[in-house]
Design brief:
The chain is built from 5 helices and 3 strands. By secondary structure, the protein is mainly alpha-helical. The protein folds into 2 domains: 162 residues, Helix Hairpins; 77 residues, no CATH class. Strand 1 and strand 2 form a beta hairpin. It is rod-shaped.
Length: 243
């Protein structure tokens, strides 16, 4: 019964660990996905910045071509009014060029931190992906070890259950479910170590004899008693450890 309880505790631990490991990995992958999306947003912002700079460059070229044509036309102006009209259009084109140039300067200043962020995020994401792959492998290996231990313990449990009477197993299972997995308790100094209730003297004496399965009259757990070991009964390292 003591070993059965130890096995059940370990089975519960392994089951929890096997179910928890994928959840931990999923949380790590979720974090990785979040970082990937942040990188994509920075890359999109940088691409938009570069695209707008090209648009500004094109706009400057268009305005410069207009100025060149206007200057050619201005030479052929017949009147002062025509001349001033061409001159006004040229000035307007020059203003548009300056606006585009100013915007290009703004975009250049904005692109520097964006470019740094993208490069840093790419390097960090690459390292993080490597860590995630490593963690995945560790989870796979750990799960395989846990599942092997689980199978071995279940086999040992079945062997133990086969050696115990059905009523005892039924009592054990019933108490285990109602007492948070603890169906077997040690008696120390005449008390149940789980509910701390003192045993009747006669009951305690019968328990010491170990002739039958006995349960705590308070919490209904199966009881066992380990008699104290005298130093003179030990030998070697065990004797030295008690001194």
């Amino acid at each position: 019964m003591i070993r059965l309880q130890e096995i059940d505790h370990r089975l519960a631990e392994l089951t929890r660990e096997i179910s928890t490991l994928p959840k931990q990995l999923a949380a790590t992958e979720k974090k990785l996905t979040s970082h990937q999306r942040k990188l994509e947003a920075d890359q999109a912002a940088l691409a938009a910045n570069q695209k707008e700079r090209k648009v500004c460059d094109t706009a400057i070229q268009v305005q410069e071509q207009k100025i060149s044509k206007l200057k050619d036309q201005m030479i052929e102006a017949k009147t002062n009014e025509q001349y001033r009209a061409f001159q006004s259009e040229i000035e307007f084109c020059q203003k548009e060029i300056r606006k585009s140039e100013d915007r290009i300067l703004e975009l250049m200043s904005e692109s520097e931190p964006l470019d740094k962020n993208v490069k840093a995020a790419e390097a960090a994401l690459k390292a993080e992906r490597a860590d995630v792959e490593k963690e995945k492998q560790q989870v796979r290996e750990r799960t395989a070890v846990d599942e092997k231990s689980l199978a071995e313990l279940k086999k040992e449990r079945d062997a133990i259950v086969a050696q115990v009477t059905a009523p005892t197993v039924q009592r054990y299972e019933r108490v285990r479910k109602s007492r948070r997995g603890i169906a077997v308790a040690e008696v120390v100094e005449g008390r149940c170590t789980q509910c701390n209730m003192a045993l009747r003297l006669q009951f305690f004496q019968e328990l010491k004899q170990g002739d039958e399965i006995m349960v705590c009259e308070s919490c209904q757990r199966i009881l066992y008693y380990n008699p104290p070991v005298r130093v003179e009964d030990l030998s070697g390292d065990a004797a030295q450890a008690t001194q």
